């Protein structure tokens, strides 16, 4: 079976798999291809969402926030972009922005967000280090851990 190199949804799926599987830079390469082949695709918000995840996993927190904001602009009812704004804001040391984004995500999907606070495995990251970082950063954004707990993961 071959992957259609022009099918945006397939490429976004592959990019997500690469990112959460431990290869966020390769995931970003697929997403760059998506942007080149069809920048006006109606599913671009999902590519931006996966791009936010990939940048978070690569510890490029500013780019993660920018991509999450872009995804959120196109699909404002999705909680995932708000979660990655929260996580990446913790990565940048901005607790106020992290708390605000987490609150917006909670308003959109309370149980979805709480499940990730309770169990970071629900992020589906293959790497234990990435899961631990997401868990601690989310707990910081929720006010359950001090901001200083993020230092071990930056």
Task: Provide an overview of this structure.
- The structure is a single chain.
- By secondary structure, this protein is mainly alpha-helical.
- The chain contains eight helices and no strands.
- The protein has helices spanning 8-20, 24-37, 44-57, 61-74, 79-91, 95-108, 110-118, 128-141.
- Helix 3 (44-57) runs antiparallel to helix 4 and helix 3 packs parallel to helix 5.
- The protein is globular.
| Helix percentage range | 55-70%
Beta-strand share of residues: under 5%
Based on CA atoms alone, the radius of gyration comes out at: 15 Å
Structural class: mainly alpha
Largest sheet: none
State the order of secondary-structure elements, H for helix, E for strand: HHHHHHHH
Oligomer: single chain
Note the total helix count: 8
Question: How many E strands?
Answer: 0
Structural shape:
globular
Distance between the first and last residues' Cα? 40 Å
Descriptive terms for the model:
single chain, 8 helices, mainly alpha
Please render the helix and strand layout as text:
Elements: H1 8-20, H2 24-37, H3 44-57, H4 61-74, H5 79-91, H6 95-108, H7 110-118, H8 128-141
Short description:
By secondary structure, this protein is an all-alpha fold. It has helices at 8-20, 24-37, 44-57, 61-74, 79-91, 95-108, 110-118, 128-141. Helix 3 (44-57) packs parallel to helix 5 (79-91) and helix 5 crosses helix 8.
